[in-house]
Amino acid sequence: MTISTILLLILSAIIAAGLSFYQYLYKVKNQSKLYWFLAFLRFVSFFSIFLLLINPIVSRKITEIKKTPLPIVVDNSKSISELKATKEASELYLKIAENKAITEKYDVQLFSFAEEFQSLEKLDFKGNQSHIDGVAKNVKQLYRNTNYPIVLFTDGNQTMGNDYVFSFQENTSVFPIVLGDTTTVLDLKINQINVNKYAFLKNKFPVEVFLQYNGNETITSNFSIQSGNQTVHKQVVTFSKDKKAQSITVLLNANNVGIAKYKAVISSNIKEKNTVNNAKNFAVEVIDQRSEIALISAINHPDLGALKRSIETNQQRKVSILKPNEIKSLQEYNVLILYQPTTAFKSILDQNRVAQINTFIITGTATDFNFLNQVQDDLNFKMSSSKEDYLATFESNFNLFAQSNIGFENFPPLEHSFGVITAKNNVNTLLSARVRNVPVQNPILTFTENGSKREAYLLGENIWKWRLENHLSKKSFEDFDLFTDKIIQFLVSNASKKNLNVTYESFYNSGESIEIIAEYFNKNYEFDEKAQLTIQVTNSKTKATKKYDLLKATNSYKVNLDGLEAGNYSFKVTEKQSNTSFTGSFEVLDFEIEKQFVNPDKNRLEQLATNTNGKMYYPNQIENLVQSLLEDENFIPIQKETIKKSPLIDWIWLLLLAIATLATEWFTRKYNGLL
Questions:
Q1: In terms of Cα–Cα distance, which of 563, 564, 584, 581 is closest to 573?
Q2: Distance in angstroms (rounded) separating the CA atoms of residues 413 and 390
Q3: Which of 107, 132, 227, 389 has the most neighbouring CB atoms within 10 Å?
């Protein structure tokens, strides 16, 4: 409080006393006790009001003891029950939390975790996942800039999240309590399966399987992959004390279109404690990408053979070289390659006005450009009778599909009639033309898209020289063949875009999050934020049906179908206003990831303790842990002094005092007839 404030307070007291004396005692002959009492009340009232008007700042020193937080976190997942450690987990944490010496030194706080991190209310050990990494993230948010210990009751077997060994921050000391029997028992396990979501018909697709062995003896096991009742792969795998993990890569045949379901199984003649982790399911969607391509030409040219060989390096493509009069039905083909079209192609182009098959037109010195100007609306040809060699220039802003520059500028020139080629409609050019290194306006390779119709134009012959040059420079035809395959893929692909796209998995494990994501687009193929999407899920066996709304996320709609029991399900996603729908199916496997473990992961828990300057303990060492926490001088309580400043006007009781004295004075005067 400043000197000026103190002087004001003294002055206020003098003024309050003077006014009270003047009003009740000055020139009063009989100064009875009543007048002195009323003068005192008036003095208190005046002085209280003056204090509120002056409003001095009052400082108070507050001393508090700040204890170090001690979060005790208990694993509440099913794996604790499977390892028969529920009794230990339920009882041992209380020995720490209820220890008087511990509570005097630490601010004990209880938490549990499974999929989520939460305050400990009840332990039921029914969690479907173990997210130890989530513990690290949550305590980091709760105790910022604080040096504190964590007591972690867990088996160390994490089923989701990042590696928890490196998740806890530096100012945290973790003391893991290992739950479960650490006695080594023999166990074979399929740890992980890596496989592509899609495979092409009649191709082979790779499956990578990671196998794990827990034991010290050398054993021989049988690994197999089954499709229904048929075994499609089988081999013997040997494990030993020094060879406890193996990776196996298998090539499987994609024989039928659709979703192919498989089961990977590992077994041995030795009895195992846990056989749940000996099998794992996976699925692949087999896509038929076989394309029938008609390469139509009225002349013989080396380009025809080069194109056929290049395109057919993709086993999903078949090229038929035909004369224009040999075409009976266009419906047999997915793409038409018209090589140097003339009037002989008229019947084919007339048929294609109805069939709407995507075409690849290649022009050259034998092309009838007057006829070509009549039958297409993409390019306008004004050509002379003279010939010219055109070099190619790669256009880096081309965006219809991903294509790198494979050295097009160094390829031999293509021969073509000399003239001017202009675009009638929007075109997307991949290669433009140069004449003796001088750029000209003509394209060499360009593409058009009009609704579902796609066209490609190669303006020049002798492309066989490009393929040969690619082999001479790279010792392989691969770059050129991939280039032609991308052109064909662009023409084969259905250009029509779906309004409703749904992403989902063929298999979900019981207890896992079953998330289905949908995207809905308006007529301009823009994401529609006002769509109303619902999903109807039907159990294929019981025919029980449930309906859910999909909730909007960032550029998508999502639904979580958690709680579905094991079985096969079909579903239908519908957009309410347009009635657009999508149907699919998936299977919920009777597979609980928390049942995959036979031992706690003490090695990783020990590594966690070492990384955080903590120490790992076993259930029979709880007393040692308590003693260590009590003796650790890094976590002693801190006495903290704070000075709290508050203005006097915030003191409500002072205002109440002024009101009370004024009211008392009024009633006293009224009672004694002085009013």
A1: 581
A2: 5
A3: 132
What percent of the chain has a predicted confidence (pLDDT) above 70?
97
Identify the bridge partners of residue 113 per DSSP, sorted by sequence position. 75, 117
| Helix (H) / strand (E) containing 236 | strand 230-239
Q: Is 251 exposed, middle or buried (0-12, 13-18, 19+ CB in 10 A)?
A: exposed
388 to 218, 444, 463, 590: CA distances (angstroms):
74, 13, 15, 70
How distant, in Å, are the alpha carbons of 18, 58, 401, 564 from that of 51? 16, 12, 81, 70
Q: Are 281 and 192 in contact (CB under 8 A)?
A: no
Q: What is the mean pLDDT of residues 93-98?
A: 92
Residue 558: name the closest of 503, 506, 505 by CA: 503
Q: CA-CA distance, 538 to 544, in Å (whole number)?
A: 6
Task: Work out the number of other CB atoms within 10 angstroms of the CB of residue 65.
Answer: 9
**End-to-end Cα, the chain, rounded Å:** 41
Q: Tokens 């202009």, residue?
A: 422
Mean pLDDT for the stretch of residues 406-423: 93
Work out the angle between the directed axes of helices 3-24 and 33-54 (0-180°, nearest 10).
Answer: 150
Q: Which residues contact 292 (CB under 8 A, 6 or more apart)?
A: 318, 320, 332, 333, 334
Nearest to 267 by CA among 228, 213, 217: 213
Do 127 and 76 meet the contact criterion of CB atoms below 8 Å apart? yes
Tens digits of residue pLDDT in 517-553: 998 887 656 788 889 999 999 999 999 999 999 999 8
Cβ atoms of 405 and 482 within 8 Å: the answer is no
Residue showing tokens 């070289």: 321
Distance CA 447, CA 361 (A): 10
Instruction: Work out the mean pLDDT of the chain and round it to a whole number.
Output: 87
Alpha helices in 272-400 (DSSP H): 302-311, 346-355, 369-375
pTM: 0.55
